[in-house]
From TrEMBL:
SUPFAM superfamilies: FucI/AraA N-terminal and middle domains. Transmembrane segments: none annotated. InterPro entries: Fuc_isomerase_C, Fucose_isomerase_N/cen_sf. The keyword Protein transport does not apply. The lineage of its organism: Bacteria, Pseudomonadati, Bacteroidota, Flavobacteriia, Flavobacteriales. The keyword Isomerase applies. Keywords: Carbohydrate metabolism, Isomerase. Residues 346-473 form the L-fucose isomerase C-terminal domain. Pfam families: Fucose_iso_C. It comes from Autumnicola psychrophila. This is L-fucose/L-arabinose isomerase family protein. GO terms for molecular function: isomerase activity.
Length: 485
């Protein structure tokens, strides 16, 4: 597996088996059997023509394309992507016309079968190597976005194809999730955080909706709840089951629980996928606790939540969650790690999902406490993230350019010693100094998102190819664009 995440629900793919009639019929029949076996093994629901509707269930003529597109149209709500199988050269027009007529606007993966060196006679040759180029050329002409396998031709049963397929499914999840994402912006951006400003209009152009509510409405509803209400008691019990309460006073726990009730009701009422919440410093001054515990619980429950009303930060959390199937966390690029140029400290005060914090405990936020009183910051979490894979990145709206942009990359989280408080981790990233040059020169935020996976290739394909965003993919062999100038 390319990543470890929570078990994913089965998804549905449309399947087009390309054909060209002067190639052997048995190649198409064999391909149909083989791909259906692979899809079944990996819990993927296929939508494809049966072998009676067209010749062998393949797509070659315009008539075939009409039948296949009608089938796809019938299953439009379920189909998250399309898999094109080329057991032979195939007919590039039939493939392109099917996708044009169906107009699904979903990711497309193109596969081609390899030939056997001893079977290149007229009766047994495939020519899918050449046919795949022709099929992609037509998709390009039609303006249809598509993805490729790492090996130009490959058999469906090959483990490398299975990995390509898993990545493609993750790309489909990211694209579908982002195009209909609903984010709650709870409260106003803190005055001292210009860094998290964003363009709601640019997001909406790409299908991402933002629902706003004033923080006073949330605090007002929470203050009206009684400690003895059943829903408050239930939340209090869930909090106790979720994290060690440490020295947190009972009254502070009730405050946290009541706000958690209201926040979850707001999420449910508005069918939100993620939230960004005002914290610094209104919640502490006007309510008397931190909201970190609730945010952590939501993120762990695959409803990512970011502080400081960082809407594009929580959008990044959501994208990484869709790619990996595991929770994400919003962090600060916070400190150098001694003299090591490839390591830095990731920190927040802290609201990371429990998946990152095996020693999770409800505590206070000492830095924030210096201005609002530490007794008003109960609800912040303490914990250290152990060694794990790392994908990091950031989505941002660039208003002067009128675009959405992102940077992504991979590294590791380490077990290096770190004597501090809050939510904390040590990261090791190849060419970290080059990355920081890129982040600073291109006006990205000090917030970044981390996920315990290696899924940057999935994110690049989804964000750049299908969402149409400007993406910088950082690697150890690659200096930033600015450094190359």
């Amino acid at each position: 597996m390319i990543f470890k995440g929570k078990e994913q629900k089965p998804i549905t793919l449309g399947v087009i088996i390309g054909n060209r009639d002067f190639f052997p019929d048995r190649l198409v029949s064999q391909a149909r059997t083989e791909i259906l076996e692979v899809l079944k093994e990996h819990r993927i629901n296929p939508v494809l023509l049966n072998d009676q509707e067209t010749k062998l269930g393949g797509v070659e003529t315009f008539s075939d394309a009409v039948k296949c597109s009608a089938l796809f149209e019938k299953n439009r709500k379920d189909i998250m992507g399309v898999l094109v199988i080329l057991p032979n050269f195939g007919d590039e027009r039939g493939i392109a016309e099917t996708l044009k007529l169906a107009n699904l606007n979903v990711p497309v993966l193109v596969q081609g079968y390899p030939d056997d060196l001893d079977k290149l006679d007229v009766a047994r040759r495939r020519d899918a190597w050449c046919g795949k180029i022709s099929a992609c050329n037509n998709l390009y002409q039609y303006g249809i976005k598509y993805s490729l396998t790492r090996n130009h031709v490959i058999r469906p049963a090959d483990p490398a194809f299975v990995e390509d397929l898993q990545k493609f499914i993750a790309v489909c999840r990211v694209v579908k999730g982002l195009r209909t994402a609903r984010i709650g912006a709870i409260g106003a951006r803190p005055g001292g955080f210009n860094t998290v400003r964003y363009s709601e209009k640019l997001l909406q152009r790409h299908g991402i909706s933002v629902t706003t509510i004033d923080l006073s409405e949330i605090l007002g509803r929470a203050n009206k709840l009684d400690n003895n209400e059943q829903r408050v008691k239930e939340r209090l019990e869930r909090i106790g089951d979720y994290a060690a309460i440490g020295k947190t006073p009972q009254e502070a726990l009730f405050q946290i629980a009541k706000m958690d009730v209201v926040l979850n009701e707001f999420v449910d009422e508005n069918m939100l996928d993620a939230t960004a919440i005002q914290c610094w410093t209104s919640v502490q001054e006007n309510y008397g606790c931190n909201v970190c515990t609730s945010m952590s619980m939501m993120s762990e429950n695959m409803q990512p939540s970011a502080c400081e009303v960082d809407v594009t930060g929580t959008l990044t959390m959501y994208a990484m969650q869709l790619a990996s199937g595991s929770p994400s966390a919003l962090v600060d690029w916070n400190n150098n790690y001694a003299e090591d140029p490839e390591k830095c400290v990731l920190f927040h005060c802290g609201n990371w999902a429990k998946s990152f914090l095996p020693d999770i405990e409800i505590s206070t936020a000492p830095i924030l406490g210096t201005t609002v009183g530490e007794e008003n910051t109960y609800g912040a979490l303490s914990g250290r993230t152990p060694a794990s894979p790392l994908t990091y990145g950031r989505i941002s709206t660039d208003d002067p350019k009128g675009i959405i942009k992102a940077y992504i990359g991979e590294g590791t989280l380490t077990d290096d010693s770190l004597n501090t408080f809050g939510n904390r981790a040590v990261s090791k990233i190849p060419n970290l100094q080059g990355l920081m040059q890129y982040v600073c020169r291109n006006g990205f935020e000090h917030h970044v998102v981390m996920n315990a996976s290696h899924t940057s290739e999935i994110l690049k394909e989804a964000l750049e190819n299908y969402m149409g965003w400007e993406v910088y993919h950082h690697s150890s062999n690659e200096m930033s664009e600015i450094e190359q100038m």
